[in-house]
Design brief:
This protein is mostly helical and 149 residues long. It is 69% helix and 0% strand.
Length: 149
């Protein structure tokens, strides 16, 4: 059976978690997969596309858990807990999302705005609350991931 895009992205994510994004090159990735580097380009256009796909995989396409609980604290907590779980599972992602904004990051942000809007706060504070939720979890998991390494 041949190499798939999913295998390439999963391996890249694992290697970035282990070694950091700067370490990952297409040649090193190809060596890990037992293929020549040009083979990878049949599946991913370039390293940036590969990194974006790895972030999308780690964030589950940005579909961070939602809750329909009537208590806004549960809805906020569910969102923050799921985001934290994804970011601690893949330590490289907190660093990657500071510089890259693939579709999953945009979807995660939209989900945060939905959750913030569901709290009943005035609309003008919704974006600020969404930003604070993301920053809180991103900052906290960055610290957790650094301590764990």
């Amino acid at each position: 059976m041949g190499l798939t895009r999913d295998q390439i992205v999963e391996t890249a994510l694992t290697l970035m978690d282990e070694h950091g994004q700067e370490w990952l090159t297409m040649r090193r990735l190809a060596d890990q997969l037992g293929v020549a580097a040009p083979t990878l380009y049949w599946h991913v256009g370039n390293r940036g596309e590969l990194i974006d796909a790895a972030v999308d995989l780690a964030l589950g396409g940005g579909e961070i858990a939602a809750s329909d609980d009537p208590d806004w604290r549960v809805r906020v907590g569910t969102f923050m807990h799921d985001l934290r779980s994804r970011l601690t599972a893949h330590p490289c992602v907190t660093d990657l999302t500071r510089r890259r904004y693939p579709a999953s990051v945009q979807a995660m942000t939209a989900r945060a705005v939905e959750v913030a809007a569901s709290t009943g706060l005035p609309a003008e504070t919704t974006a600020e609350l969404a930003r604070l939720m993301i920053w809180q979890i991103t900052g906290f998991t960055t610290l957790e991931n650094t301590i764990r390494l």
